[in-house]
Amino acid sequence: MSSPAPTPRPALAVSCEDVARTFGRGERAVVAVHGSSCEVPFGSRIAIVGPSGSGKSTMLHMMAGLETPTAGRVSWPGLPDVAERRGQIGVVFQSPSLVPALTVVENVALPLVLDGVPDAEAQERVTEALELVQVTELATQLPEELSGGQAQRVAVARVLASRPSLILADEPTGQLDRANGQHLVEVLLATAEQLDAALVISTHDIEVADRLQERWRMHEGRLKTDEAGLKRTSVPRATHADTTTAGGQR
Ligand SMILES: Nc1ncnc2c1ncn2[C@@H]1O[C@H](COP(=O)(O)OP(=O)(O)OP(=O)(O)O)[C@@H](O)[C@H]1O
């Protein structure tokens, strides 16, 4: 008797339906994102461009599940297991946010330790990630001993070591010179390729955006995914969505 066919992986890493995010209340309320929708399939390479304050970080944080939308919903059809999802979504923050008391190697290993990855495998992944972003020689340094650009590369190594299937990078090259910035984008692209991950990068740098297959634009809190040059044909919509809505996760 033949064994049952494996369940195909749903195509979408994340889907946002009419999401909005307001900070503060009353007169002080700031609408960072107005109703915006998008779909990010596994394997896609997307740049989000837009001026400072247009809502790029807020949008990425909602895609990561770090911010809860005040309206609309975010779902991760291809990452339905809430417990596993934490390790599957890798976020590179605008500022590196390393743990000050831990060395570079300990910072990169931390998520793996927390996820219970066996020591030998964790060590292998950390070594590989440090090599990829070319910071091996900084392994025993503390964050306070690093330049901004070095710290950002370490933060990227920490994400790569987790081998995520959705990589969300917020201005990852903002603190790097041109050559290092280009190298980092190549590393993110190569890693996404290797992992068949979705990669979304917010950036002000048009050279970075040019390296990616699609370009979306944020303007005054509204996301436009249909600019000229956008080339994705239809993406199959998954039927079982684990969802974050206004009011929290379910
Ligand atoms: N936690 C917060 N509390 C209050 N307002 C916020 C908060 N986070 C973001 N905002 C506001 O929401 C708007 C969008 O901010 P966001 O950081 O998402 O923009 P951005 O496009 O990523 O900007 P940049 O390119 O400068 O990082 C801005 O007006 C910002 O001041």
Automatic annotation (TrEMBL):
Where's the ABC transporter domain? Answer: 14-245
SMART domains recorded for this chain? AAA (SM00382)
Q: Where is this region: Disordered?
A: 223-250
Gene3D superfamilies referenced in this protein's UniProt entry, alphabetically: P-loop containing nucleotide triphosphate hydrolases
Where does this protein come from, organism-wise? Answer: Terrabacter tumescens
The molecular function terms of the Gene Ontology recorded here are: ATP binding
Q: What is this protein called?
A: ABC transporter ATP-binding protein
**Key words, A-Z:** ATP-binding, Nucleotide-binding, Transport
Recorded hits in PROSITE patterns, A to Z, give:
ABC_TRANSPORTER_1, ABC_TRANSPORTER_2
Q: Where are the transmembrane segments?
A: none
What are the Polar residues biased-composition ranges? 241-250
Which Pfam families did the record assign?
ABC_tran
